[in-house]
Design brief:
single chain, two-stranded antiparallel sheet, 1 helix, about 10% strand, elongated, MOB_kinase_act_fam
Length: about 55
Amino acid sequence: NISEYDWLAINTYDMWNEMNIIVGSVQEYCTKLLCPTMNAGDFEYAWADDEAV
């Protein structure tokens, strides 16, 4: 049996690696110039960073 802490750590690590693979595969094709907005169908997603909103 695996502890909840270990399960969370392993799955977080795996998800991080999978996201890096996805980002790495589209990074050169999706730039601010080529992809000015992040959307899926009629939905547009916004990103807020620590700078200003």
